[in-house]
């Protein structure tokens, strides 16, 4: 469990049934760029005392990263933002961004099963094997390329295994579309089949006329992988040979295989690689300059194949083509989208501005040109510094540079299309197309409502698009840019909350909106009987936050109340009971008979009274039970003198971590109805929307307000209060005193008094 310094914040939730629904299984939360920021959630229950009875409470423990991002002045008007987390492992939100997975998959989530990792995505294509399928062969016909009948890996002709896999994927993600790769340009070749098992032999017989052969009669290499990671693909690293897809037999075999996929009910469509209308591909993969077809021959052959597939499978079956960063206008009316595999000549570098502009143009074209439903997939490649090192790949994918490129391509897709994106390894390394699952992708923008390719205030290369749950911003303008929104939003990567957001050059950001937290009903007012002229007696107990708030609170209440302060940085509620050795503990105040106890503790777990029998800090269920027991102890103490209790929920910390007492304090009015036990959330005053907000617009009369802007929170990591934040915090407490009927509004009016 992460602890947040002197304030003693522990990120802990005690949830109701709704919270339980939001915390099923391992959870990722969108987080700041400086670390592999992953928030984990686990839930259990604990029986705790409540007014003489026992209540079972759901406890959800959340561990989240800390952000140190600062930002300029912002406003606090409008709808506020809350970053959602995923709810079920293997599920993305229903809206955008939508992520595609070519072939391989996620390389950094060992906590997920294979099926859960696949179901993170909304589009996946693969070979037959990963879906539990194989092309049927037998002793009389051994070649998979000549087979047009599917069975599953267990040999059942009814495809039982494959359909079970399909059902499991759709249970995890009903929106997931599955495609099967069909080979037409190149396939595996074996000259000598001696001693080989059926799955080891070539696609077609070695003497088949369907292979393309060079002048010596040898098959032409079609594709390879750099198995030894030396940066060069050598002859013994080739994995396939070219097929002569001009031939009617090849076209019909491939089309019939597409029909078999469609009839199986296992997939939604097929994927066709190497699909180009502007350059030739029928040449040796080893850099040969000899082409075995003209460009027109290649294009016409592909179009004949595409027309035949569409003729067999009908209009509803999906066809995805790999056109890289080029258009395919003759193919587009027959296909549903392009896989934009964004090849780059230097795998150790990123992309040029010229390339980015070309990608945008092609993506925008594809979003309009292909038939519905469109499934365009934009794929960026990572910057590689340790080529071929499998152990380094996970960390390297998560480097600041690669996270920036990931954000750039994600927001390019969001602002220029309505479809999918992925950022992953290049296609030359063994095990190509693996990627990390970035928490950035867990954000749920909902559906687009703004126009594509919308320029922000006419700035060249700065794009913004509105979605139902926020905005996507993409910047390739050549410099950092400030974006001002009409509402307050939270950056998914920056964690900055406000209306103004800075987007670096060659970067992008998702800005999310959500409503404020639901309020807690503290019940009706509970006025306090006082003799004429008698001052209200208030006990204020808390930690370092309380220390900052107390002077303003005493000043505002000075005409009507005396405030006895009990605060010290890093203390927990239990530190202020007499049996903990504090002679000025709350129980020693009984003779003073305070009218109100104000309980303002963030939930420090590092103080001695919050330790278990071995001296270790309490955590999880034990931690929650202790805070609840101490809160009930305060209520019992107050009841002996007919005192009121106000539990104050402190603002969120950096990283939007809730105070450790958050849900315990929220639960107290419900445990003791009637209005004498109340709850106050300071979030609207200091951390609106449950987001860490460092600065805000303000009135000149407010402390710390300079030229209409003031600091709410300190820039150092624990996020203590600055003058404006402490003032608004104190005002919120006083406003609750008025709502509770404990003081008159006229007695706390400070309009005729000079600010302290």
List the helices and strands and how they pair.
Elements: E1 3-4, E2 9-10, E3 12-15, H1 17-21, E4 40-50, E5 53-63, E6 98-102, E7 105-106, H2 114-118, E8 123-126, E9 133-135, E10 150-152, H3 160-172, E11 177-182, E12 186-187, E13 221-224, E14 238-242, H4 248-264, E15 269-272, H5 295-313, E16 318-321, E17 337-341, H6 353-369, E18 377-381, H7 390-397, H8 400-416, E19 420-424, E20 434-435, E21 462-467, E22 470-475, E23 481-491, E24 497-503, E25 507-512, E26 536-542, H9 544-556, E27 561-567, E28 596-600, H10 620-640, E29 644-649, H11 662-671, E30 677-681, H12 683-686, E31 695-697, E32 709-711, H13 723-739
Parallel strand pairs: 6-8, 6-19, 7-20, 8-11, 11-15, 15-16, 16-17, 17-18, 18-19, 26-27, 26-28, 28-29, 29-30
Antiparallel strand pairs: 1-2, 3-5, 4-5, 9-10, 12-14, 13-14, 21-22, 22-25, 23-24, 23-25, 31-32
Helix pairs in contact: 4-5, 9-13
Which descriptors would you attach to this protein?
single chain, 756 residues, alpha/beta, Rossmann fold, eight-stranded parallel barrel, five-stranded antiparallel beta sheet, 32 strands, disordered N terminus
